[in-house]
Structure formats: C-alpha cells, structure tokens
Amino acid sequence: MLMLGLEGAGKTTIAKGLSGELVNGVVPTIGFSTVSLMFKKLAVVLYDLGGGPGIRAIWDNYFADVSTFSILSCISYVNQSSLTQSVVK
C-alpha cells in the first residue's frame, strides 16, 4: 500500500501505529520508509513516502510497485503554504 500526503499529514504516525510501533517522537520521513505488518492473515507492506516538495515530484515512480493506494488528506493550519503548493500542482 502506498501512502501519500503532504508533509505533516500523519502518514508515518499512522503506519507505525498500525504496525504496533511507538508513535512518540516520530520524525518527518525524508525519502521513503517501509513498514511491514499482518492484517488478519494478509501480509501488508506500507510504503510511506515523504510529503516534502522534493519527493512529491517523484511519487509517480513508486506507482508500479504497489497494488493499493492511500491518500491522506489531513489539512493542517500549521503549514498552509504546503496546502497551497499541492492545490496549485
């Protein structure tokens, strides 16, 4: 599953929480990370792609390797400039 969203949307926190990892002190993802977990009897790999402007430009490079997408649309008033950037693109 590919997790996409703007920086600060909570992708890494959700991925770590689903896998049972502690979510205290989660730092922004630079590039990407993977999290493996079991859902019922199904092995799931979450591809957590960073949401910064540099990595957003190459998100499409990851589409061929996944079968499910999850787009996180958490709107944060803390960083309105990133929301404006995503709407413009």
Could you walk me through the main structural features you see in this protein, from its secondary elements to its overall organization?
This protein starts with a strand and ends with a helix. The chain has one domain: P-loop containing nucleotide triphosphate hydrolases (Rossmann fold, 3-Layer(aba) Sandwich). β2 and β3 form a beta hairpin. The protein is built from three helices and four strands. A four-stranded mixed sheet has the order 2-3-1-4, with helices on one face. It has helices spanning 11-18, 53-56, 80-88, and strands spanning 2-4, 32-39, 42-49, 69-71.
Text of the CATH class: Alpha Beta
Q: What's the total count of β strands?
A: 4
- CATH homologous superfamily assignment: P-loop containing nucleotide triphosphate hydrolases
Continuous helix count: 3
Which fold name fills CATH's third level, the topology? Rossmann fold
Q: Specify Rg, calculated over alpha carbons.
A: 13 Å
Assign an overall shape: flat
The order of strands across the largest sheet is: 2-3-1-4
Tell me the number of structural domains.
1
Q: What string gives the helices and strands in order?
A: EHEEHEH
Structural class: alpha/beta
Mean pLDDT: 77
Give the second-level CATH assignment, the architecture.
3-Layer(aba) Sandwich
Q: Roughly how much helix do the residues carry, as a percent range?
A: 10-25%
**Major beta sheet summary:** 4 strands, mixed
Q: Estimate the strand proportion.
A: 15-25%
Low-confidence stretches: none
Summary?
Pfam families: Arf. The chain has 89 residues and is an alpha/beta fold. The protein has helices spanning 11-18, 53-56, 80-88; strands spanning 2-4, 32-39, 42-49, 69-71.
